[in-house]
User: Which sequence fits this backbone?
């Protein structure tokens, strides 16, 4: 992080963040992390700076030691931090921006404007907003720049889609160039597109996908842009299949999630690898866990939030707030709510009590997954909730003979040896 901060083009800003958040020698394990303000339509400057710098550092570190392009992925639905995130990533020379979980038609134009450090806007979705309401997010790079900079490189923009109609809509309606598509099937890790039509479930309670949810890959090819296939493509056979269907390549996540270099904490990684080896790994597509309302893939793991008793033992608290939705208050102002927050608070903001059932705090769980659980007053330690694709059951194939761990290079070798 320090290395990244040292390369941030605006050193006074980097220094402010270092002073505010670094602890010499690191945080004692039992001490809580400092809270940051939550994103809102008019976030405090301190938070905008933190978001910009964080995205810069993330991309900067990923670009170290090689010349390959690095992409960054955002969920369209998490709109409040979009503009400062994109600008920070572009300052670090991000090569690709990938976005799903929504319809990102207004992103390409933002990328075009940031090339010349121009101000950008983004339409915030506000539940119950009225026509005249000001729901536009705005970011003006020149309010943050400590000096003039040369124009930035415009990253390529790939939209993540799970239907043909979404691909054509993006091409028709985007406010700038879409450079390609990632076609994601419902076996992919993370959030999945919900099935089309009336909600239906399999006997286990997972969303049931049918014929209508299949993407016609040939038709994607006819749009004339490169595309990548994702969701269960982490094998040489599936890679070959994708290439012969005209894909430029595949997007693979689950296989890399459990490799030695991944940031998933070691105890979770090891336990799930062992389950995969012994044939006991199981991924549940949870229709309600995510406050985004998208189905969310959950690896079943004792001690994690996939377990009902662990979930019920957690006092509901919303202090990171990335998944909060904006809504119009009766007074006409904009406020924010999350169906994972304490039920009484959510309901007092006009949320429906039934929408809170089974919701999990992905924000706190995901930072716990990477080994940074928040420590609550009274000592409660936040637990993780591991997402993984259906391919979790297959990851043992990457283990070299007689080894209990594998590397990212082992995955690449395996994928390419055909
Ligand atoms: C741990 C994990 C986190 C993920 N997070 C995101 C995400 O934030 N945004 C996104 O678009 N896709 C996300 N995905 C989906 C992947 O980008 C990818 O498309 C998909 O998992 C590929 O399928 P595979 O896991 O079978 O290889 C995630 C997947 C995993 C396994």
Assistant:
């Amino acid at each position: 992080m320090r290395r990244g901060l040292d390369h941030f083009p605006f050193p006074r800003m980097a220094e402010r963040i270092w002073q505010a958040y670094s602890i010499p020698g690191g945080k004692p394990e039992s001490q809580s992390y400092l809270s940051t303000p939550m994103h809102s339509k008019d976030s405090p400057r301190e938070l905008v700076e933190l978001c910009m710098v964080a995205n810069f550092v993330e991309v900067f570190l990923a670009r170290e030691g090689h010349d390959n392009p690095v992409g960054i992925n955002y969920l369209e639905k998490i709109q409040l931090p979009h503009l400062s995130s994109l600008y920070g990533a572009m300052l670090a020379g991000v090569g690709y921006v990938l976005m799903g979980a929504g319809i990102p038609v207004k992103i390409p134009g933002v990328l075009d404007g940031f090339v010349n450090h121009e101000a950008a806007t983004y339409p915030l979705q506000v539940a119950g907003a009225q026509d005249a309401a000001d729901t536009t997010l705005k970011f003006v790079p020149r309010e943050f720049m400590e000096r003039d900079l040369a124009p930035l490189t415009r990253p390529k923009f790939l939209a993540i889609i799970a239907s043909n109609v979404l691909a054509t809509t993006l091409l028709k309606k985007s406010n700038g160039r879409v450079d390609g598509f990632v076609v994601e099937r419902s076996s992919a890790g993370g959030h999945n597109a919900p099935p089309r039509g009336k909600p239906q479930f399999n006997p286990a309670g997972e969303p049931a996908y049918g014929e209508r949810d299949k993407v016609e890959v040939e038709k994607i090819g006819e749009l004339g842009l490169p595309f990548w296939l994702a969701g269960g493509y982490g094998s040489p056979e599936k890679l070959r299949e994708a290439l012969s269907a005209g894909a430029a390549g595949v997007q693979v996540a689950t296989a890399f999630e459990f490799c030695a270099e991944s940031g998933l904490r070691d105890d979770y990684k090891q336990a799930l690898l062992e389950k995969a080896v012994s044939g006991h790994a199981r991924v549940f597509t949870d229709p309600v866990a995510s406050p985004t309302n998208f189905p969310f893939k959950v690896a079943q793991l004792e001690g994690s939030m996939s377990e009902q008793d662990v979930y019920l033992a957690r006092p509901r608290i919303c202090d990171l707030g990335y998944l909060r939705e904006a809504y119009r208050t009766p007074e006409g102002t904009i406020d924010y709510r999350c169906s994972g927050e304490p039920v009484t608070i959510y309901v007092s903001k006009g949320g429906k009590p039934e929408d809170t059932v089974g919701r999990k705090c992905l924000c706190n769980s995901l930072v716990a997954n990477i080994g940074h659980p928040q420590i609550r007053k009274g000592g409660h330690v936040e637990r993780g909730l591991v997402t993984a694709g259906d391919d979790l059951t297959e990851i043992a194939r990457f283990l070299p003979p007689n080894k209990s761990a594998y590397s990212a290079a082992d995955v690449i070798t395996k994928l390419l040896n055909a």
